[in-house]
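Ticket #257: bound-state structure for NAP.
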Amino acid sequence: MKLAGKKALITGGNSGIGLATAKLFIKEGAQVAITGRDQKTLDYAIQTLGPKAKAYRADVIDSAARKDLFAKIEKDFGHLDIVFANAGIAGQTKAGSTDEDTFENILRINLTGAFFTVEAALPLLKDGSSIIFNGSVIGSLGQAGYAAYAASKAGIRGMARSLAADLSPRGIRVNVIAPGATDTPIWNRTGRPSAEAEALAKRLASTIPLGRLGEPEEIAKAVLFLASDDSSYVQAIELFVDGGAVGTPFGGPAFRG
Ligand SMILES: NC(=O)c1ccc[n+]([C@@H]2O[C@H](COP(=O)([O-])OP(=O)(O)OC[C@H]3O[C@@H](n4cnc5c(N)ncnc54)[C@H](OP(=O)(O)O)[C@@H]3O)[C@@H](O)[C@H]2O)c1
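RESOLUTION: The complex was predicted; output attached.
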């Protein structure tokens, strides 16, 4: 088992990539704290994950909730070895029709929330721990209508590199996982009709060299690599798990002659 005896925090562990990662971490021997805002999916996740998981309702942008969360984690877990700052939202911010609140909310959750999660975790993190941020291919690919999301995920990359320099003296590794389009509930949260979401997924798949969306379990396996000793000499990287979307953007079925 790759995480025997390890203690991990996964923000947004009640859905999608976070939940798949929590399942895999537990299978590999870890105890896992998960967070989210939705009590219903937190309850469901705990039923699925079993006794090695604990769920805490906390919004990453609520500083009082964060203080309370880390006091509870300290009481329940004592310390942490792994933080997966995964919680995030998508959302469009089209040029010409975006208000400040919409733009800032995306940055506040995806970037500021991730920073202050790590900031609050630092006193509990053992030397030699692993921090993983969830980035996105959208932080590198220019996708129309996603300026705030792209800025938040490009910000994650820059922030992780800076934090890796801050925390290397303690042997703490800081890396980014950058998923490509992955089949999770995030696609249905915008209120987009399901037929439209399906058409979008199909269109996206045609641009991905491997010809399909990723599964959350495939992202989880790469997070496990960054969390475990298998990556003991890996520091400040952005690991794309994207079916080739960034490395060979014209390799998808849509571009084949
Ligand atoms: N799916 C993709 O195609 C894709 C691609 C690249 C990157 N990502 C990144 O992967 C991460 C996880 O997304 P996902 O695809 O697994 O989507 P998801 O199923 O919608 O999961 C998002 C998670 O974040 C939590 N969350 C959102 N805002 C929060 C807040 N303010 N405070 C606390 N928790 C919050 C949600 O919990 P509640 O529902 O309880 O609020 C949920 O557990 C995100 O950072 C996303 O940007 C996803």
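RESOLUTION NOTES: Residues 11-12, 14-18, 35-38, 41, 59-61, 86-89, 109, 113, 134, 136, 179, 181-182, 184-186, 189 surround NAP (CB under 6 Å).
TICKET STATUS: resolved
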